[in-house]
Amino acid sequence: MSNFVQALKPRLRSFRESLYLLARNKLSLAAFILLIIIVLAAVAAPLIVPYPGDIEMDTHIADQLLPPSSEHWMGTDELGRDIFSRVVYGARISLTAAVAAVGLSLLIGIPLGAVAGSFGGWVDNVIMRITDIFLSFPPLLLAIAMVALMGSSLNNAVLAIALSWWPWYTRLIRGQAISVKERKFVQAAETIGTSRSKIIFRHIIPNCISPVIVQASMDIGGVILTVASLSFLGLGAQLPQPEWGLMISMGRMHFPDAWWYCIFPGVAIFITVLCFNLLGDAIREILDPKTRKN
Fold it and tell me: Is residue 188 a contact partner of residue 198, using CB atoms and an 8 Å limit?
């Protein structure tokens, strides 16, 4: 038990230091707290929204396009559904889609980048030339083309985004792996006959992961924008899903007479993306001592 406590002390010290660095930056701390609120609201959305039936199926034609009021905080849409309920539930859809897309990108990009940087030679050339082909297309344009081929749905949009996003992580990991493989602990592992796969997954990838965590935390905001863009174009979420980009797409037909229909989903996107960007900066400061403020 004492050994476990002793082993835990450095981790607790590092955790306290991270909290201190986060709390020192008031803007990042506010973004972190706001993100926690958004995530908790997304998780508990069906339980906390005032009109859970309005999330998808219920319609109230007599209440269509009502302005914000004490009864409907963000007004109603063209079917009389409560926009506040749909925006809160839309957080669940957007966050889940963004995390899934970034996660799939990491699963593809990290191993490929580590293999390319570790092996070098023709293996590196093949992987990086394929990566360059993907990087030659704008991610949104590539995602649009893939969804058009696979069919319009939120799942296909997530897959298309992941397939257009992985090259960035491959390049990032490759650069780190080229540096890490020259370190003495990797050379020592090679000397004692450790297999190449174990060296990659036990030594190289864990020592390359810090910049990837920073990049991924900032990319979630960009992916939320991309998911919303695809849904706005009719290539992502489909009716009656309350996805933010789809809500803006439907609301634009009633703007400016029913401005609240577009504005509130747009504000939700803006706040969420801004919070992820600020949190990404904070994580970079925590993980990289060179960027810590005195």
Answer: no
